[in-house]
Amino acid sequence: MPTRRAFLKYLVGFGTWSLLAWNVILPKTALSISTRTFKPGQQWLKNPQVKLSFVVVSDIHIARMNAIRNFSATLNDNYNSKPDAMVVIGDLGDGLSRDYNTLNNELAEHKLEINYPIYWTIGNHEFYGSFYKYGLWSPKSFPNRETDATAIKRFLTLAGREKVYGDTWINDYHFIFLGSEKSRMSNMNYTDAAFLSDTQLEWLQNALKKNEQLHKPIFVFLHQPIPYTTLGGLQQGFVIQWQTLNAILSQHSEVILFNGHTHYELDYKNMVSKANYTIVNSSSLANPIDRNKTPIMNSAPGLVVEVYNGKVVIKGRDFLKSDWVSAAEITVPEL
Q: Is the C-alpha dihedral spanning 230, 233, 234, 238 positive or negative?
């Protein structure tokens, strides 16, 4: 492990650092911030009262410096708590075969510790193989004989799915995974935004109607965020069809949408929206940044989600420190 980490170099790609700071935006009536104080190094133990618990991380960027360390720490932290699932919301690497090989090797090394399913969504960096030529960063020769189809195929091989979108049920709760079907390789104007086809959006409408119990939470995952005006300012959106997506999700107040992409730290202050559903950003496991866009060193943030009767509790956790993120806890009641 140490020699492999030393061999991996930090890969510089197009960033999302021009985004305005945001982390979680919720209906005002649904926001509850914890005042609990946490002692360093608390082990996360699964509460026996929960009906479902799962971990959410994003932007693991497995080839970057310390990324393997952070991902490994997450798997180690999960082992004793035994969540029902983990979801990784995109930007697994830079879309290269060697990134997927590195990730698969890490999963294989921890196979005895992973006693829960892992679900993946596609991010903008899954299409970044188009910026590499013979394994070296070469944006001038973009798209370097790459296509959206080949990039998606690599991701789907890891994810074990036939499409970038799909759904599953865990402990009778509905999980819906969305993902971009095109990148700037198809249209330079798409940049890093998600392209959701009419077919995917129609599928989403039908999938959301499958809930057997009214007001039961539905968990939706998409790497890129949609724009919203919050108390912290205007959040730039990265979904081309965001208005249609928002209109669909707004019909279901029980939806909790998890995004990644921005890398911003887990800080929920003044981040309340007028959305009819809940939106949560999950920072970056590999490269979190603060509100001044300064990298936060030696930190691997993500979320622990616990579902109880009548409420969903979402808590920030630093998996590298095996500790909770102070004040980064919200409660979403069933509506």
A: negative
Measured over the CA atoms of residue 164, residue 165, residue 166 and residue 170, the dihedral's sign is positive
Q: What number of other Cβ atoms are within 10 A of residue 161's Cβ? A: 17
What letter represents residue 222's amino acid?
L
How many CB atoms are located within 10 Å of the residue 302 CB? 31
d(CA 282, CA 289): 12
Residue 77 has what pLDDT? 92
Span between the terminal Cα atoms of the chain, in Å? 47
In whole angstroms, give the CA distance from residue 296 to residue 170.
Answer: 33
Tell me the DSSP string of 120-176. Answer: EE--GGGGGGGGEETTEE-GGGTTTT--HHHHHHHHHHHHT-SSS-EEEEETTEEEE
Report the pLDDT value the prediction gives residue 15, as an integer from 0 to 100.
Answer: 36
Kindly list the strands in the beta sheet with 311-318, ordered across the sheet, starting from the edge strand earlier in the chain.
118-121, 85-89, 52-57, 301-308, 311-318, 323-333
Helix (H, G, I), strand (E, B) or coil at 189: helix
How far apart CA 92 and CA 88 sit, in angstroms, is 8
- Mean pLDDT taken over the chain: 84
Contacts of 132 (CB under 8 A, 6+ apart): 94, 96, 138, 144
Cα torsion at 98, 103, 106, 112 (round to 10°)?
Answer: -140
**Structure token digits, residue 214:** 């009214």
pLDDT digits 0-9 by tens, 273-291? 556 888 888 899 999 998 7
- The dihedral built from the CA positions of residue 251, 234, 91 and 171, taken in this order, carries a sign that is negative
Domains and CATH numbers, the chain: 2-333 (3.60.21.10)
CA-based angle 148:153:154, to the nearest 5? 105
